[in-house]
């Protein structure tokens, strides 16, 4: 007999006792966890509803809305007249008598400065909207990943239940064979240890599901104890072209909007080099007995316009920077898309194998091994070997589904660089 299966009875019994102790500890922890969360009714929702709630509740998107609102309010600052100048003069400036002089003067912008300011502010509003669109895209990706992470935990839990059923049947067969004298007590101990191990893992999986649920709840940012709908397919469906075109469109729009803002900034700085016209009114007394009135007009001419000229040139440089950043990130996105597509195809191929062949082999191995062992046609060690092989296939299928979902979501939502 192979030395791998030459198990010492005392050592195995000791291991079984340790596993039983761990199982009881895990069961107590699981009971405490379930008791602490039982007061919150779980609300199953679809992925579409989860994304909708996230976009409605997410604080980052609310901050983005406030930024759009702030920039919209600032559109009213397009017309920027100089502060009203009011001056009073009193004293002996005309004669020995104490006379009074009051003057009011107001300067107004000329040329296209008001139009340039308004256009700049309109572009800043659009830029804030583009930033929000990027944040919304990232949020949708995060919610989708978190949603399917929870479903992965559910699939692991289902596999655990299936394994529990398999080993429970194995335990019954082992106990029956032991009573009839067909096998030793080692088979019963082994089966009990495996059942307790699976039940301990079940308690740990309860914790994992709570963690996954809280991650989803964090992105949706709600007090409701929501969970994914258990009717949702465990396999994510990707829309290739839609996802990639959306990412490229969002990224292009964002950088082109940055270019538009820089262009309007340059126009604004250029317009600031035009003069401002001023109108005024004055009233004064002479010899304290007569009131004289008059009007004034004047110009404010920016003789030293080098500052605004430099600012206009700096904005022109910003245009080039944004264009270079757009070209760079387009290249990055295309390379990322190719990498994600290859990984997606790789995971799809692995998943196809398990769906078309692997799972069928696993079920056939389990069914055949159980019948053969129950009929006494298969030794205990051969049965365990075949059972472990089938279980490993099922575990690999669960992991393959999870890996496929992760790659599909990444392919659907490639990362957008916006810096």
UniProtKB/TrEMBL annotation:
InterPro entries: MdtP/NodT-like (IPR010131). Residues 110-137, 188-215, 328-357 form a coiled coil. Keywords: Coiled coil, Signal. Residues 1-41 form the signal peptide. One of its GO terms (molecular function) is efflux transmembrane transporter activity. The keyword Signal applies. Transmembrane segments: none annotated. PANTHER family: OUTER MEMBRANE CATION EFFLUX PROTEIN (PTHR30203). This is Cobalt-zinc-cadmium resistance protein CzcC. It comes from Flavobacterium bizetiae.
């Amino acid at each position: 007999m192979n030395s791998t299966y030459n198990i010492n009875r005392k050592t195995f019994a000791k291991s079984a006792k340790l596993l039983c102790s761990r199982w009881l500890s895990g069961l107590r922890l699981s009971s405490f966890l379930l008791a602490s969360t039982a007061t919150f009714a779980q609300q199953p929702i679809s992925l579409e509803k989860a994304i909708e709630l996230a976009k409605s509740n997410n604080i980052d998107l609310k901050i983005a809305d406030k930024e759009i609102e702030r920039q919209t309010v600032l559109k009213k600052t397009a017309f920027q007249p100089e502060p009203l100048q009011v001056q009073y003069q009193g004293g002996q400036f005309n004669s020995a008598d104490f006379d009074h002089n009051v003057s009011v003067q107001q300067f107004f912008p000329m040329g296209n400065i008001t139009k340039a300011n308004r256009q700049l502010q309109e572009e800043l509003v659009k830029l804030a909207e583009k930033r929000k669109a990027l944040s919304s895209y990232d949020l949708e990706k995060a919610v989708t990943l978190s949603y399917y992470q929870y479903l992965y935990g559910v699939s692991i839990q289902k596999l655990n239940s299936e394994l529990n059923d398999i080993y429970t049947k194995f335990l019954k067969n082992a106990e029956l064979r032991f009573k009839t004298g067909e096998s030793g007590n080692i088979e019963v101990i082994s089966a009990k240890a495996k059942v307790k191990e699976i039940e301990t893992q079940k308690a740990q999986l309860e914790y994992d599901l709570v963690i996954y649920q809280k991650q989803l709840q964090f992105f949706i940012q709600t007090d409701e104890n929501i969970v994914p709908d258990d009717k949702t397919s465990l396999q994510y469906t990707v829309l290739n072209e839609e996802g990639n075109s959306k990412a490229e469109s969002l990224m292009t729009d964002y950088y082109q909007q940055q270019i538009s803002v820089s262009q309007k900034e340059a126009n604004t700085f250029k317009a600031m080099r035009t003069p401002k016209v001023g109108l005024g009114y004055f009233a004064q007394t002479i010899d304290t007995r007569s009131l004289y009135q008059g009007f004034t007009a004047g110009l404010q001419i920016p003789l030293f316009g080098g500052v605004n000229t430099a600012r206009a040139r700096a904005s022109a440089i910003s245009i080039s920077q944004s264009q270079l950043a757009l070209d760079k990130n387009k290249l990055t996105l295309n390379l990322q898309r190719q990498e994600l597509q290859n990984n997606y195809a790789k995971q799809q191929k692995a998943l196809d194998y398990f769906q078309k062949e692997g799972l069928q082999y696993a079920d056939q191995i389990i069914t055949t091994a159980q019948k053969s062992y129950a009929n006494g046609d298969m030794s205990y060690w051969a049965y365990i070997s075949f059972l472990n092989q089938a279980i490993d296939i099922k575990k690999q299928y669960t992991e393959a589904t999870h890996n496929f979902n992760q790659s599909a979501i990444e392919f659907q939502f490639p990362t957008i660089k916006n810096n």
